[in-house]
Design goal:
Strand order of the largest sheet: 1-3-4-11-8-13-7-5-6
Helix content: 25-40%
Number of helices: 8
Structural class: alpha+beta
Radius of gyration: 21 Å
Strand content: 15-25%
Amino acid sequence: MGKKLKHGSKFAQMGNANNKKSKKRGTRGGRSLEKEAERFGRWGGLCDPVKLKDAQSNKALHIHKIKSFPSDFLKVLPSGKTVREIVEKHRYPNMASELKALPNTGKILLPLDHLDPATIPVGTPPFIIMSNTVFGAGGTWLRAAKPAHLLKHDKNRSVSEAWHLGVWEVTGKVPRLTSETKSQTPEAIEAIDVLLRFIKTNIAPKISGVFQEHAPAQWEALCGAHNRVLNELGSQFNLRPNLDMGGPFFTVAAKEAGSGVTHIDWNDDRAIYAFVFAVGDWEGGEFCAPQLGIKIPVRPGQVLAVLARVLCHFNKLLFRHSDPVVVDCTMMF
């Protein structure tokens, strides 16, 4: 990305500050939401009782400390065969039923600050996985518009094909719009833009906040990349403004039912998060990380941030009314 990122464990302390227990109130009980809102007003601020209730119900913070940094895939040739061989060699659990389930509510952080810094690659952000509820359940999908698949199907990831939407530079010298973004029927382009508008409005701003709070060095690098993209593609963004997510990610990979095959996202940057969430009419699923021996329950409205170039992973659907659409947002540079 043209900028060397430095690992700083001090950022990993930020999540722990939220985990301190507050002092108990007197025996008369706590204040009502309306009274809390009034106090905010007297202090010169604003407080919405509904938002306050949501914050109180989702305040749980779960810290899961991993035993060692998962470095199996940092210096190997990228291929699905490589993933299968390493998983088999180390006897990593390859079924969701064999993995330990983390809590299905609240915010989840997997920090790295307790590990030997010498074992962590330079530039790695302070958490290897983060998960939290950041948007209201909902969203829409493209199936009725029948957008075309124009890229080769990667069977090392899943049985279903993905659409790659937005900006791509992995196989080129300058950023460009993917063929699946622009080479579609007018109906498909309209449906794609509706999906992207939902992501841009409801999710991208929250992800920007996550970068700024938990990975400021990576956010600075992303802002530089975003300026470069604007210089190259500004006129095309003017025609389709929902393609510009504002910097936290540039590419949206979307597929029905997600990726059920253990894989590595080889095109991702090792120091930049991929953000995974699902939209549509669905109830839940699990994000599985065999190297860590864990699975993280994923519910509507939750977004999971993961170093997908470092951790092999797959997802397992638990319940569904119809196939949800799993969306992976990242930087394909």
